[in-house]
Specification:
Elements (H helix, E strand, L loop, with lengths): L10 E5 L4 H12 L3 E6 L2 H13 L3 E7 L5 H14 L5 E4 L5 E2 L7 H29 L3 E6 L12 H20 L5 E6 L7 H5 L1 E2 L7 H12 L4 H13 L4 E2 L3 H12 L1 H19 L4
Parallel strand pairs: 1-2, 1-4, 2-3, 4-6, 5-8, 6-7, 7-9
Helix pairs in contact: 1-2, 1-8, 3-4, 4-5, 9-10
Length: 284
């Protein structure tokens, strides 16, 4: 079974803990008395989260700056953790990057980084942390952060969606594969969240400094929820063993629209694509 009560005393492994949803979730868990195991490729940001979690009275048993796309780095960290500590109770794949663009503008590196970090990164963590959880026989929970772009066809998101649809798909399979071990699986599908990702997302072939482009980015950010609210939604969803965890009602409604009204959804998405393209390719 998934975690039904609080997280006090639970060993929680979190990627992307230096900022955004990862940091907010780590600090929420710290306040609940969880034992934390944290990683991020941003060493300074990770150190700040560790300090803040400890200031809340939490135990940060292990932390290490690494890139989850590097399998050997993940495997080494996992080996060190499992040598000194029991298996995790909760594993949260939160780290991720984003790049938008049309197929004629996306480079091979854009495609490669989306798959390496957003899909293979979580797979590396799953490979190294889930088998010990299964062997321990205590149950637990796996959380994978996908995206609204893992549910619906957002414009210019082909590379990003390739990684996020993949993460949702493997989460659905693991939901059933791991049920007999009492390990719950949740996939988080955020829409806009007020994190650095919104302001730093790569948009292939587009000048991010163009004021008209920035206006639309700011408008998108204006609808974003806070990382803290997203973290609250995640922890509430884990407690209830939800499969899909929404951080905002708009994404839940859009996904329902897609499932029950495919033709109107298709027409609407074509129009959204036209508007998106006009907004991000302003005339000069």
């Amino acid at each position: 079974m998934a975690q039904r009560g609080g997280f006090a005393g639970k060993r929680c492994f979190i990627t992307g803990a230096a900022s955004g949803i990862g940091r907010a979730t780590a600090l929420k868990l710290a306040a609940e008395g969880a034992e934390l195991y944290l990683t991020d490729r941003d060493a300074d940001g990770l150190a700040a989260t560790v300090d803040d979690a400890r200031a809340l009275g939490a135990t940060v048993a292990e932390h290490r700056a690494l890139d989850i796309s590097d399998f050997d780095a993940v495997a080494d960290f996992a080996a060190d953790i499992h040598t000194a500590h029991p298996a995790m109770d909760v594993v949260m794949n939160i780290a991720g990057v984003s790049a938008w663009g049309t197929v004629d503008q996306l480079t091979h590196q854009h495609w490669r980084s989306m798959i390496d970090i957003n899909l293979m990164g979580p797979i590396h963590v799953i490979e190294e942390f889930l088998p010990p959880m299964v062997a321990a026989g205590r149950g637990g929970h796996l959380v994978n952060v996908s995206s609204a772009a893992g549910l619906v066809a957002l414009p210019w998101h082909s590379a990003y969606s390739a990684s996020k649809y993949g993460l949702r798909g493997l989460s659905e399979v693991l939901r059933f594969d791991l049920a007999r071990h009492r390990i719950g699986v949740s996939v988080v599908v955020p829409g806009a969240v007020k994190t650095g990702l919104v302001q730093t997302v790569q948009i292939a072939g587009v000048d991010r400094e163009d004021p008209r482009v920035q206006k639309w980015v700011d408008r998108f950010a204006g609808h974003a929820v806070s990382p803290e609210k997203a973290a609250d939604k995640i922890l509430a969803g884990v407690r209830k063993n939800r499969f899909l965890i929404y951080t905002s009602a708009d994404i839940r409604a859009l996904y329902a629209f897609k499932r029950v009204a495919w033709w109107p959804y298709s027409v609407a998405m074509r129009q959204v694509n036209v508007l998106f393209t006009r907004a991000l390719r302003p005339s000069r």
